[in-house]
TrEMBL record:
Keyword terms, alphabetized: Cell membrane, Membrane, Transmembrane, Transmembrane helix, Transport
Membrane topology annotation: Multi-pass membrane protein
GO cellular component, one term: plasma membrane
Organism (species): Nonomuraea wenchangensis
Protein name per UniProt: Peptide/nickel transport system permease protein
UniProt subcellular location: Cell membrane
Signal peptide: none
Domain ABC transmembrane type-1 span(s) in chain numbering: 74-264
Domain of life: Bacteria
GO terms (BP aspect): transmembrane transport
Family annotation (InterPro entries): BP-dependent_transpt_permease, MetI-like, MetI-like_sf
Record family assignment: Belongs to the binding-protein-dependent transport system permease family.
């Protein structure tokens, strides 16, 4: 009975996270075909328009509709997150699997030391460096966040690979003469996919925060493309007189990050059979 209650709570967290993520994704998808107003339209007559009437969430200091900016900002955030996490997964997973399959070799040691070196550079510093060379923008933010997240995927993939490599079916495959590439594709990757999915969800939350921070500091998405981080930056001079300008984008970032974190935790509990048995026995 206790185990059922625990699973119910876990499912509730997974459902709550999935619902929050679904709202963000739905807003982004709808923004492709409809927004209340053009999010880049400057309307002096609607400057600082209060919520209600023609502007459901009000308008900013330039008269741009807040709801429209939030919807298109969700699209920008998801775009950056998908590309950044994709970069991290495509680079980090093969490196982690390679290091895990040759734990005592010089190649594994080299991969992990380079991994530690990259881990020492935060996404913000990397974005500043790339921005100085190539110019600030969405592409710079995606590359910086993606490269900075590679070590997380490499470490998770390596730890999971080390566990898979000592299983009977992998030992049998190696004894039968299967090459390393075949073992990795047929036995290792399918069995570590669950932890990679969880890592992707958690990394997506980190990417959302990083993109908002970079846009806030001027190293992310450039005007006139709406971004939650730049909406926060533009609202800071009116923070005390019109706090709602910072409330809506701040709430959007918080809920999106919470959603992906809850989704990641829920997926971890759902996909990990050992964790499910432990909680059920408890």
């Amino acid at each position: 009975m206790r185990g059922l209650a625990m699973r119910g709570r876990l499912n509730a967290g997974l459902v709550a996270g999935g619902a929050l993520v679904a709202v963000v994704v739905l807003a982004a998808l709808v923004s492709f075909v409809w927004t209340p107003y053009d999010p880049t339209l400057v309307d002096a007559a609607a400057k600082l328009h209060e919520p209600g009437g023609g502007h459901l969430l009000g308008a900013d200091k330039f008269g741009r509709d807040t709801l429209s900016q939030l919807m298109v900002g969700a699209r920008t955030t998801l775009y950056v997150g998908i590309v950044a996490v994709g970069i991290a997964a495509l680079l980090g997973t093969p490196l982690g699997v390679l290091a895990g399959m040759t734990p005592r070799g010089w190649l594994s040691e080299l991969v992990m030391r380079v991994n530690d070196l990259v881990f020492a550079f935060p996404a913000l510093l990397l974005a500043v460096m790339l921005g100085a060379v190539y110019g600030a923008g969405t592409l710079t933010a995606m590359i910086a966040i993606g490269v900075a997240t590679v070590p997380a995927f490499a470490r998770v993939a390596r730890a999971a690979t080390l566990q898979v490599m000592v299983t009977d079916y992998v030992l049998a495959a190696r004894a039968a003469g299967r090459r390393g590439g075949a073992v990795a594709l047929r036995h290792v990757l399918p069995n570590i996919s669950s932890v990679l999915i969880v890592q992707a969800s958690v990394s997506f939350a980190i990417a959302i925060l990083a993109e908002a921070a970079l846009s806030f500091l001027g190293f992310g998405t450039r005007p006139p493309t709406p971004s939650w981080g730049r909406m926060l930056q533009e609202s800071q001079e009116l923070l005390f007189s019109t706090p709602r300008l910072a409330l809506w984008p701040g709430l959007a970032v918080a809920l999106a990050v919470l959603g992906f974190n809850l989704l990641g935790d829920g997926l971890r509990d759902f996909l990990d059979p050992k964790l499910r048995r432990i909680r059920a026995d408890g």
